[in-house]
Amino acid sequence: MHRTGALVRACRPRQWVKNLLVFAAPATAGTLGDPRTLLLCAAAFGLFCLAASGTYLLNDVRDADRDREHPRKRSRPVASGDLPVPLALSVGVVLVIAAPLASLALGNTRFTLVLVGYVLLTLAYTLRLKEVVVCDLVAVASCHMLRAIAGGFVVGVPLTSWFVIVVALAALLVVVGKREAELRVTAPVHLTGSTDAQAGEETTAHPTRTALLGYTPGYLSQMRIMASGAMIVTYCLWALEQGGGPQSAFHAVSIVPFIMFVLRYNLLVDRGAGEEPEEIALRDRPLQLVLASLALLVGLGIHL
Fold first, then answer.
1. What gap in Å lies between CA 149 and CA 114, rounded to an integer?
2. Where are the alpha helices (DSSP H) in the chain?
3. Is residue 263 within 8 Å of 170, Cβ to Cβ?
4. Which among 51, 45, 55 has a CA at the least distance from the CA of 17?
5. Residue 107 DSSP SS3
6. Quick check: 248 and 242 in contact, CB under 8 A?
7. Which helix (H) or strand (E) covers residue 191, if one does?
């Protein structure tokens, strides 16, 4: 029972909230009311949960030594020794293979290809991309994008340019905020031999994530501001270009909670709370209320 509990924790069920992105495209298209669409999205959600958990296990096996040096990650089942490495490795391999194979039962080639692409990208991130500055940001943001794209493919919903751009910018915002929060909770480290160190400057770095050595809080903050501004502008253009009638008013009013969401999330990141984005979504009540208001207004705009 102890190992079973450790295995479940290592699969990180709290992070499955990210896979809810598969419902985004059908929801904005107004097709979630169809039982078949809802069933297909639920199946896609489950398959992405399996694939993600497999990659989490493989990632924890690879990073076990580093995680033991981290004040929070040292409690992860593999790093703490609660979950044996051979068991984590074997289950991880089974899950990343089983998810794409199981997706074949849906008979949707495009969805299967996206799921395979997601698995390959997450494996590449685990093995190499997480150590490369900027590439690590793009890789994680792309994983979020693939979830949203898969949701459209699995039910055959066309993906509009507005949808793709807003999701891409939102994914970048979340990933950059996560990196920035990781830097904020890290003690300063002097990098001897670097240009900054020679100039007498202090660089913040995370001892367990090499890519963080290449970032500064100022750079990540600028990226976060850029992504936030571009996302707000894009959403406003979409909302204001919707067709006439009562529904257009709901789309226009939805701009208010959307901007409040962006502002609230940036405030939380600035406070250092963005290291675990899924925890913010599950625990921050003001953010939940804003998102609920946004979903309600967009839903009314779509269905009325």
1. 8
2. 2-10, 24-28, 35-62, 64-67, 77-80, 85-103, 109-127, 135-155, 161-184, 195-198, 217-240, 246-253, 255-270, 277-283, 285-303
3. no
4. 45
5. coil
6. yes
7. none
C-alpha 99/C-alpha 154 separation (Å) is 14
- The CA–CA distances, whole Å, from 141 to 64, 177, 247 equal 24, 11, 31
Helix axis angle for 217-240 and 161-184, nearest 10°, is 160
Using one digit for the tens of pLDDT, what is the confidence trace for 50-73?
A: 999 999 999 989 888 887 877 777
Burial degree of 89 (CB within 10 A; 0-12, 13-18, 19+): middle
Which residues are registered as beta bridge partners of 189?
203
What is the rounded distance in angstroms from the CA atom of residue 27 to the CA atom of residue 130?
32
> Mind listing the pLDDT tens digit for each residue in 105-143?
999 999 999 999 999 999 999 888 988 999 999 999 999
